[in-house]
Specification:
Layout (H helix, E strand, L loop, with lengths): L3 H49 L6 E3 L2 E2 L5 H11 L7 E6 L2 E6 L6 E2 L1 H10 L8 H10 L1 E3 L3 E2 L3 H15 L7 E5 L2 E5 L4 E4 L1 H14 L3 E3 L2 E4 L9 H8 L4 E4 L3 H6 L6 E4 L1 H7 E6 L2 E6 L1 H14 L4 E3 L1 H13 L4 E3 L2 E9 L6 H7 L4 H8 L11 E5 L26 H19 L1 H5 L9 H13 L5 H13 L7 E2 L5 H5 L4 E6 L2 E7 L10 E5 L2 E2 H9 L7 H11 L3 H6 L8 E7 L5 E7 L3 H4 L4 E2 L8 H4 L5 E6 L4 E6 L10 H14 L4 E5 L9 H11 L3 H4 L3 E5 L6 H12 L3 E4 L8 E3 L2 E4 L6 E4 L2 E3 L13 E2 L4 H5 L4 H8 L2
């Protein structure tokens, strides 16, 4: 029995050892498993770390493999492998010429950092999907390098250099005269690059990698394409010699061997012609100084008995040359012979001895002063004063005007129109009473019969002027040919504007090319002095006083159809105008007529608008006002008696009333100098307006400025303001009297379609009928005032107490 416990003890010990071994093995297995897991996890993490810092396999930049490289490695590789920007570029081609342009020249290059970033981003979204990643690596992906675009400023500078090299400037037409030979060449077009278009084309070619780009020229036309009208003018002037004729019967009787003419060669004539570029044309002008020098030279070749009046002869030659004629008459002074100055002689003593004047002696001998010296030879003028100049028949058409072949219906239609007009005029005494008794006068009947007989030999515009002559006999300024509806009248005009001043008729505006005529006095048209021109115009312009005639005449005398019909010119497209400058020298110019529509926006003013006085600043406005604070005066210019579509007259007057009530207004000045009339209702609104401000009439602080252009309802307003509101009138006489026929109605002649205005109402505004309204304070405006930008009329009003 004692053995059993030992055996059991041994068995128990063996079981305990086995259990410990198992436990040990389990511990070892657990540690190994943990180790393997850690290794696996570390491997996975390392793989992901490595994958996240390199470009995926299979990615190429252009043809450079950057797969598997880090960004820094890729930057180094691309910097080394991509082409140098200096070797890249585009060929710029222009008309067969080539200019190489490299990237480096214009700042274009590879942006390597941006390119690597682009490569690195390829396939990033596929890394979590092994199948997609594998397919990416198998197929390879090629991206293009990112490019820093060219600098437009550098491209523009490059194009500018090319443009300067290839640009061909246009060549203007050329004209010159040399010893009578004419050289005339047409203009040639130039070529030039359009900079901005060229820059855009080059930018596009560089961006798209094009090997070449073609730039295109655009053509530049010369300013002057053809040497006209100079070439045509020269052919006329140089077609034959110019002859100066000395034709003086008085001299011929005294001097048997006198020279009767001078033939002037085309070589000499060519030295008198001066080409000038005016706009897009080349015109020939007469160099008056050259002609004058020739006349002075010829004067020295004549005998004492043939003393040449150089001034008059020069004028005759200039007019003939401008008219395209090839001969002119010399103006001679008849002389008694020569006198040798003795010791103690004076010019006055010699003049008294020979029964002449000091001025005559000076003129004959070209003396600038009274100074004479002993031994000097003087020409003594004769007491005879023969008429040496060509006789001018004023008011008849020149004999060289060809009468065109007219259709048979021409005379029939115009005679019918004349009969209809006369029948309408004959009814005027029935309508207006004794005011139109002139229709029974012999002068009226003679004018009608004369025109009727002449119609077969006259063209349309001459007949219309004949009708104007008949209407002018009525002495009614509102009964007339409506010029705005007469197409021939509106078709063309000469390129200047004129205005009468107290000292003459002056140019106040001109078209480009005629600016040298600004501020000159017009003294002659053709061969006719301006006062004689006015006499002719008075026969055809309906007017009621000489002031209205002056105001209207400047429009008529610049119309080719009027001048031609009056016999003042032989051409409907050009005319000779003679001007006088401030130094009393005459300037002769051929003026070319043009369309008033073309000219309307191109006027050059003698007094620029920005420096002009108030009364010239807003002539296009119907009415306007301003408050002159320094003078405590309100200035209201009323240019046209119609409602301004943009500003009703009643509202306009309310605005003035607001100024009067809010400002210190001591004087109220209404300027009617440019008011030709309009609606008779507007003066009534002014009356209501002034009644609301009685202080001006009660204190005689209302001043009205008037002039020759104040007409029709403008005169009515003047009379009303003077009689009802104690207005003081300042300026020049009005162009019409206070009582007149007006409210014209239109009447259309059946065949010609010519529109005639016939007054329908007698406006009786004044108790005493006067031909004009004279100012209370007469203030004429001279040319000196005008061109100096002064307004003596307004200044006079402002200076009144």
């Amino acid at each position: 029995m004692p053995c059993k416990p030992k055996v059991l003890s041994l068995l128990n010990n063996h079981s305990q050892d086995s259990l410990d071994l198992v436990r040990l093995l389990m511990r070892i297995l657990a540690v190994g498993l943990v180790f393997m897991t850690a290794v696996f996890l570390i491997t996975i993490c390392f793989s992901f770390y490595h994958l996240g810092n390199t470009i995926l396999l299979g990615v190429y930049v252009q043809n450079i493999n950057v797969g598997g490289l880090t960004p820094d490695e890729a930057v180094l590789l691309l910097t080394r492998e991509l082409p140098n920007p200096e070797t890249l570029g585009v060929d710029v081609k222009i008309s067969g010429q080539t200019w190489p342009l490299s990237w480096a020249d214009v700042g274009q290059s590879y942006d390597i950092d941006a390119t690597v970033q682009s490569a690195y981003s390829v396939g990033r979204s596929a890394t979590e999907k092994p199948s997609l990643l594998a397919r990416l690596q198998d197929q390879n992906v090629t991206i293009m390098p990112v490019i820093t675009p060219a600098n437009p400023t550098l491209i523009r500078a490059y194009v500018a250099e090319i443009a300067a090299e290839v640009e061909i400037a246009p060549i203007n037409a050329h004209f010159s005269l040399n010893l009578g030979e004419m050289i005339a060449t047409s203009g040639q077009s130039g070529q030039c690059l359009e900079i901005e278009t060229s820059v855009a084309r080059i930018q596009q070619a560089l961006a798209e990698g094009e090997p070449a780009v073609e730039l295109i020229f655009y053509s530049i036309e010369p300013n002057v394409i053809e040497p006209e009208p100079a070439r045509t003018q020269a052919r006329g002037w140089l077609s034959q010699p110019f002859v100066l004729i000395i034709n003086n019967s008085v001299v011929a009787e005294l001097v048997e061997d006198q020279q009767t003419e001078f033939s002037i060669s085309t070589e000499i004539i060519s030295t008198w012609l001066e080409p000038r570029v005016t706009g897009q044309n080349i015109e020939l002008y007469i160099n008056e100084a050259a002609v004058e020098a020739w006349v002075e030279e010829i004067a020295l070749q004549l005998t004492p008995e043939q003393s040449l009046d150089t001034t008059a002869t020069l004028q005759n030659m200039l007019i003939a040359l401008q008219a395209g004629e090839h001969q002119a008459e010399a103006q001679l002074r008849l002389t008694r012979g020569m006198y040798t100055v003795q010791l103690g002689d004076t010019l006055l003593g010699i003049a008294l001895e020979f029964n002449t004047t000091v001025d005559e002696l000076k003129v004959f001998n070209n003396l600038r002063s009274d100074l004479i010296i002993t031994g000097q030879r003087l020409i003594i003028p004769s007491a005879l004063t023969p008429e040496l100049s060509r006789e001018i028949v004023i008011g008849t058409p020149p004999t060289d005007i060809a009468v065109p072949d007219l259709p048979a219906t021409h005379s029939i239609n115009w005679r019918e129109d004349l009969a209809v007009l006369v029948e309408r005029i004959n009814r005027l005494p029935e309508i207006h009473g004794e005011g139109f008794q002139v229709v029974y006068d012999e002068s009226f009947i003679q004018a009608v019969n004369a025109l009727d007989a002449a119609i077969p030999t006259l063209v349309d515009h001459q007949i219309v002027v004949g009708l104007m002559r008949i209407l002018a006999l009525l002495n009614d300024a509102h009964t007339n040919v409506r010029l705005s509806r007469w197409e021939d009248f509106q078709e063309s005009a000469y390129p200047i504007q004129l205005q009468w001043f107290s000292d003459g008729l002056y140019v106040t505006a001109a078209q480009p090319g005629y600016e040298d005529l600004l501020a000159l006095e017009l003294v002659q048209i053709g061969r006719v002095p301006i006062l004689q021109v006015m006499t002719l115009l008075a026969e055809i312009i309906p007017h009621e006083n000489s002031y209205g005639l002056r105001a209207a005449s400047t429009n008529y005398m610049l119309r080719p159809v009027i001048l031609h019909a009056l016999g003042l010119t032989a051409d409907l497209t050009r005319a000779v105008f003679v001007f006088r400058n401030a130094t009393d020298h005459t300037i002769t110019r051929y003026l070319i007529a043009d369309s008033p529509v073309i000219m309307q926006d191109r006027w050059v003013l003698a007094v620029p608008q920005q420096t002009s006085p108030l009364y010239l600043q807003k002539l296009q406005d119907y009415y306007w006002y301003t408050y002159l604070e320094s003078s405590r005066a309100l200035y209201f210019q009323f240019n046209l008696s119609y409602q301004d579509p943009g500003l009703p007259f009643a509202i306009f007057l309310e605005d003035i009333s607001n100024v009067i009530t809010t400002q210190a207004v001591d004087k109220y000045i209404i300027d009617l100098r440019h008011n030709p009339g309009g609606l008779p209702s507007l003066p009534g609104l002014i009356a209501f307006h002034l009644e609301a401000h009685p202080q001006f009439s009660q204190n005689r602080k209302l001043f009205v400025l008037i002039g020759n252009q104040t007409f029709s309802s403008g005169v009515y307003l003047t009379s009303m303001l003077q009689q009802q509101f104690n207005a003081t009138l300042i300026g020049e006489p009005t162009g019409q009297g206070a009582n007149f026929y007006a409210s014209p109605e239109e009447f259309v002649l059946p065949n010609s379609g010519l529109t005639i205005n016939f007054s329908s109402t007698y406006w009786d505004f004044a108790e005493v009928t006067r031909e004009t309204i004279f100012p209370d304070i007469s203030v004429p405006i001279s040319s000196i005032d005008y061109f100096a930008g002064l307004d003596p009329v307004l200044n006079t009003a402002l200076s009144q107490p």
